[in-house]
């Protein structure tokens, strides 16, 4: 159901829809960020969106959400944290984010992408802890790029099945994504090898 709704919204409003859906993810929009990026990739695969503009809209949406999270934490940290902690789900995410930061330090910015919701909370916490924007940008934007590429490719390759894949990744963890990406790469290499052999045989004939 979610992917059908997303397709309808994106078809109607285009690249701006991808950007703002991801931008609003930082304030708890109930549509998974992973599915938004993947749907953009899927719509590219069926020719409804331009591949470059779709990807840029996705990554800029992710980057803007990361930026807003940091700035909100920098200037309104404690009130926002208190507000978030009113919800049991968000309180659990805050506790998990705090534990990640205690255990891994600033590397938690990268590790947080393994966990839905937590990746939105960690920027608040590191900003409250005094991290400079420069250091934050150097850590968070590259991993955000890798994350966007991964889900964009999943949407492009797996199409209508991507909603089930996103649910599986959110339930079983980021390692599922790594396995899928590895299978995707292997599949593309095999496909290129097979197509190359066919072209070679056709040329020989």
Automatic annotation (TrEMBL):
What is this protein's name? Answer: DedA family protein
For the VTT domain, which residue ranges apply?
Answer: 31-156
Q: Which family does it belong to?
A: Belongs to the DedA family.
According to its UniProt entry, this protein's organism is Brevibacillus nitrificans
Presence of keyword Transmembrane = yes
Determine if Transmembrane is one of this entry's keywords: yes
| InterPro entries reported in the protein's UniProt record | DedA_domain, VTT_dom
TM regions (residue ranges): 12-32, 52-76, 138-159, 171-190
Q: Cellular component terms, GO, for this chain's entry?
A: plasma membrane
Cite the entry's keywords alphabetically.
Membrane, Transmembrane, Transmembrane helix
Q: Name one Pfam family in it.
A: VTT_dom
């Amino acid at each position: 159901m979610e992917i059908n709704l997303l397709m309808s919204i994106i078809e109607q409003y285009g690249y701006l829809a991808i950007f703002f859906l991801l931008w609003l993810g930082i304030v708890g929009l109930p549509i998974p960020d992973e599915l938004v990026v993947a749907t953009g990739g899927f719509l590219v695969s069926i020719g409804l969106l331009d591949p470059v503009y779709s990807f840029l809209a996705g990554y800029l949406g992710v980057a803007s959400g990361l930026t807003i999270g940091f700035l909100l934490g920098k200037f309104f940290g404690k009130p926002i944290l208190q507000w978030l902690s009113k919800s049991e789900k968000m309180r659990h995410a805050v506790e998990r984010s705090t534990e990640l930061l205690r255990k891994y330090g600033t590397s938690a910015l990268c590790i947080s992408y393994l966990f839905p919701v937590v990746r939105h909370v960690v920027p608040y916490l590191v900003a409250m802890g005094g991290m400079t924007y420069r250091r934050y940008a150097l850590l968070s934007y590259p991993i955000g790029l890798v994350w966007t590429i991964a889900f964009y490719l999943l949407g492009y390759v797996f199409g209508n099945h991507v909603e089930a894949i996103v649910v599986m990744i959110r339930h079983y963890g980021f390692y599922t994504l790594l396995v899928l990406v590895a299978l995707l790469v292997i599949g593309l290499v095999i496909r290129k090898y097979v197509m190359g052999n066919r072209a070679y045989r056709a040329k020989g004939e």
